[in-house]
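Hello,

Following up on my earlier ticket. Below are the two sequence lines again, exactly as submitted.
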Amino acid sequence: SQTIHQWPATLVQPVGSPLSLECTVEGTSNPNLYWYRQAAGRGLQLLFYSIGIDQISSEVPQNLSASRPQDRQFILSSKKLLLSDSGFYLCAWSRGGPSDTQYFGPGTRLTVL
Amino acid sequence: SQQGEEDPQALSIQEGENATMNCSYKTSINNLQWYRQNSGRGLVHLILIRSNEREKHSGRLRVTLDTSKKSSSLLITASRAADTASYFCATASIQGAQKLVFGQGTRLTINP
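Thanks for your patience. The regenerated structure is below:
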């Protein structure tokens, strides 16, 4: 069966510090991968999606970036965090395209102070 | 935008009652999906209904889709305390990149 992992589960970082969130998928190959951000009590905002290694689309201009060094690994990064980067970050994967069913990881709660 | 909008934003009912949540969207869709999120957790996929389907069932869940009104409803029958969660609809546009666009969610509370 397929599983998706995210770490860390929680993170508290000072403004201006770097960020690296990791997501890995097991049990499938060539998944489509997604990073979402969710503000408190709100819906999900798509940040990045990837249909393959080195094929990453950015949805929202921001100081975040994403990379996919391996087929089943998706990393969300920032060189300098802003207060507004606080939120709940969710990684997801799908077998088919972006309109297919998506399977979510447990999320990372990021607090920027 | 094509964003789905759930209604109501919050719903509180007694255990055993039925819960109905609605979702409206703006443009033509490929499919509409419902997800559930327990507090502080990731989302769990519940049901996908395609644009050429009108109704779909899964256990105690019933989803309807009315493409002429651009709306969908999620019915949970015989609710349980464990159904307490936020429920999101997500739409996949028939055009463009067909990304899933999530609504703001309905917060459902089942009182024992």
